[in-house]
Amino acid sequence: MPEATFYREMRDTTDPLWETIFQHPFVKGIGDGTLSRDRFEFYLKQDYVYLIDFSRVFALACAKSRTLPDMGSFAALLHATLNKEMELHRKTCAAFGIAEEELAKTRKSPITSAYTDLLVRTAYEGGLADILAVLLPCACGYVEIGKRLTSEGLPADRFYRDWIETYASPEFRDFGDWLIRRMNEFAADAPAQRRERWHRLYESSARYEHLFFDMSWKKE
After folding, report:
1. Is there a catalytic annotation at residue 144?
2. Is position 138 annotated as part of the catalytic site?
């Protein structure tokens, strides 16, 4: 990812939390292929309903954008989420015998509900920079996970390998880099109070990333 000033500041401040995520048995289990199928299925279902609201956040960000380039970038992120990321979930679940109709009817867990509530509420109430701050942990965190697991060697399990390769792909890396650049541009001349708000939003979202993996490991 590109050199980042404000983003790097947020990322470095939460580095212990990210290391906990990278070392979590759920993430490590995807990387080495030892994650049990029932845990992965639980995760896929919860992540699918999470991504529905994640897509809404991109749509709201597009609506709140003041320039055509920003609108185009958020529209591209919305397209990638709806038609690439969610299709991977649909395809994998179909291979596990889980129909698309069943997937779409998944009931959100309390952690999923709390996380998506944070995202959607921020998108409705905040400005574009607030939305960027709360999106970054998921959008860029998954890229980091994908890159790290790829560097450690891909698992033999084709479903886990597909998951890793999706988030390590150039497309997702480019999207993450763009979000970082825009966050840094907003922060360049922002007062300390606003920068602190963005720090809090970023950290809250990053904590939910950890809770989401932990929830999937425990099947809560």
Report:
1. no
2. yes
Give me the catalytic one of 62, 138, 140, 144: 138
pLDDT in tens, 77-103: 899 888 888 888 888 888 888 888 888
Q: List Cβ neighbours of 11 (8 Å cut-off, separation of 6 or more).
A: 4, 18, 140
Nearest C-alpha neighbor of 89 from the set 46, 38, 34, 35:
46
Can you give the pLDDT at residue 101?
85
Per residue in 17-49, pLDDT (tens digit) is: 999 999 999 999 999 999 999 999 999 999 999
The answer on pLDDT for 54 being more than 50 is yes
**Can you tell me the distance from the alpha carbon of 116 to that of 108, in angstroms, rounded to the nearest whole number?**
10
Per-residue HEC secondary structure of 44-103 comes to HHHHHHHHHHHHHHHHHHHHHCCCHHHHHHHHHHHHHHHHHHHHHHHHHHHHCCCCHHHH
Q: What's the pLDDT at 22?
A: 96
Helix%, strand%, coil% for the chain, nearest 5: 80, 0, 20
Domain 6-218 has CATH 1.20.910.10: yes
